[in-house]
Amino acid sequence: MTALAITRPVSASIGRCELSFSARVPIDLERARAQHAVYESTLRQLGCRVESLPAADELPDAVFVEDTAVILDELAVITRPGAASRRAETNAVADRLSTVRPLARIEGPATLDGGDVLRAHRTLLVGIGTRTTRSGAAALARLVEPLGYSVVTVNVTGCLHLKSAVSWLGEDRLLLDPERVDPRPLDGFRLISVAPDESPAANALWVADTAVIAAGYPRTLECVETLGLPCLAVDNSELAKAEGGLTCCSLIVESSEPAIRAKRDVPKGRSKDDS
Ligand code: GLY
User: Fold this and answer.
1) What does pTM read for this prediction?
2) All domains of the chain, ordered by start, with CATH?
3) What is the b/e burial string over 99-121, where b = at least 16 CB atoms within 10 angstroms of the residue's CB?
4) 198 CA distance to ligand 1 centroid (A)?
């Protein structure tokens, strides 16, 4: 089965990206674009069909498409990003996803970033932190629990998103930085800690049964390889300055065939807690 990987070019305005935990340092646009091209080639190498959305140079963080949607087999949930500057990013993503999934939406004032939603089979771990509110997690739960998913909230501290600190590596495996996430809701998973001082390696992309890990974190790479898992290292150092990780730069649609051909919206994810 060929997965569709939706990406978006690095915006010319990336230097004005949102920053929550890192100091602003110059981002080399050409280098960021070159690294992003290698990322896209890696996805192709892993069998994905990569489709780049139109550039949005006026939206600094548009390359981080992951935050704009949560894609499940049955539907795609268009998020309401926690940073107001990022909300317009969802339009082009919703247009594209409407051709492969029925759409649902998180409605304001709730907020939810895709980077805070980690799927492991039928469990969605949802990080509560600077971008995703409890009402955002509740709105998602109302949309997906009737489909048989369970939503488990996880407190995240000291990093932007849940997936900055935890990644799913297939089966029951989670790669994580235990310093940045409360492990108590993760009971039942096999927890693999990143090497000390290799915290950014906790954001890894699991695609085609391969762990794509940020380059520069050799001990974590070795640890994952020791588990018998295929690994690839990809340099993401420029976009890391914008607090973006490897998962942030794609939306993976496991089958590009419409799950339900009729284009329709499912009930809105509004919470009575939101009013
Ligand atoms: N710069 C990525 C974000 O803040 O969403």
Assistant:
1) 0.93
2) 4-253 (3.75.10.10)
3) ebbbbbbbbeebbbbbbbbbebe
4) 20
Distance CA 149, CA 81 (A): 22
- What's the gap in Å between 117 CA and the centre of ligand 1? 15
DSSP string, 192-255: EEPPTT-GGGG--EEETTEEEEETT-HHHHHHHHHTT--EEEE--HHHHTTT--TGGG-EEES-
Written as six digits, the tokens of 204 are: 């890894």
CA of 257 to the centre of ligand 1 (A): 30
Nearest to 245 by CA among 204, 195, 215: 204
At residue 256, the pLDDT reads 53
Positions in the chain whose pLDDT score sits under 70? 1, 256-275
Model confidence over 176-196: pLDDT tens digits? 999 999 889 999 999 999 999
How many residues appear in the chain? Answer: 275
Among residues 238, 210, 211, 197, the alpha carbon closest in space to that of 22 is found at 238
Q: Is 161 assigned a catalytic role?
A: yes
Under 8 Å between Cβ of 250 and 205: yes
Using an 8 Å Cβ cutoff, are 237 and 202 in contact?
no
Q: Is 61 in the pocket of ligand 1 (CB under 6 A)?
A: yes
3-state secondary structure 155-197: EECCCCCHHHHEEECCCCEEEECCCCECCHHHCCCEEEECCCC
Q: Which two tokens stand for residue 195?
A: 């090497």
**DSSP of 28-70:** -HHHHHHHHHHHHHHHHHTT-EEEEPPP-TTSTTTT-GGGGEE
121 annotated active-site: no
